[in-house]
Amino acid sequence: MDERGSIQTIKAYGWIDDGGRAISGAMVEHRASLANRASGRCHANDIDIHFLRTNSDKPPLIALHGLIGSGSCLLPLARTLEDDFDLILPDARGHGQSSAPASGYSYRELAADVIGLIEKLELDAPILLGHSMGGLTAAIVASQPASPVSGPILVDPTFISPEWQREAFESDVATDHAHLLTVAKPDLLVRARQRSPRRSAEMIEHLVDARLRTSLDAFEILAPPNPDYRELVRLVRVPTLLVLGENGIVSLDTAMELRRLNPLICFEVIADVGHGFPYDEPDQLGGVILSFLRRQLSACQRP
Known about the structure:
CATH class: Alpha Beta
CATH superfamily: Alpha/Beta hydrolase fold, catalytic domain
Mean pLDDT: 89
Distance between the termini: 42 Å
Low-confidence stretches: 1-32
């Protein structure tokens, strides 16, 4: 859609839209359904960051969720990538099981959290994937002069105009969230299933849990101004994938503009999906991501 936005999509940022062993400085708490998945925690940038990790010997890939999300919300996507990568799925500050300080909810602080996580886990040039809020955060990390990441993947990031930013900030999205925090989980599950019938029961459960674990303070991220996404993209010095939903936030015109601004940007459009397509079509998104990363690996291996 055009970069004018709608409150309905804004409300969907990270949730529902239209749709115990040492591992790199962290303590494992349990294992679960994703192959070799571990739950860990590390201290970085003055907060505790909770994350899920497959802890394999494959190249590291960090995946950042959106507002009102959590690392668990990206588990279905992670399953499409786990044969090729060591997946790290952190909870952003104010989300999931990470610290929820009273302040510090800016994109620059979120980026500093990610850089701190990379340093504490001693990750070597991880691929950095981000959806929505996580996408803009990933762009900030990738734009740094000595960026610690490779192969940024920006999934319908919050590349929005100043007008849209003001609309989001002045909307009732935080008030709505405060009300939903008073609603019993079974009722939230019913509402989520009715609103997003395409989503799996597992995904609905993850998203509702994430909703209930999101601090009201986290909505400070909506306060304008956002970092200038055009300037961020201009500064990126490695091949970068921008993935759009046909009915998502970032328009095709914006993607083409960014490619002209930086030829290292390539983009793919997934048809008939909205902003929440990592939740609705994780397999399709995973295929797009793997295709891009395999092309990059092939290019690096050429003599």
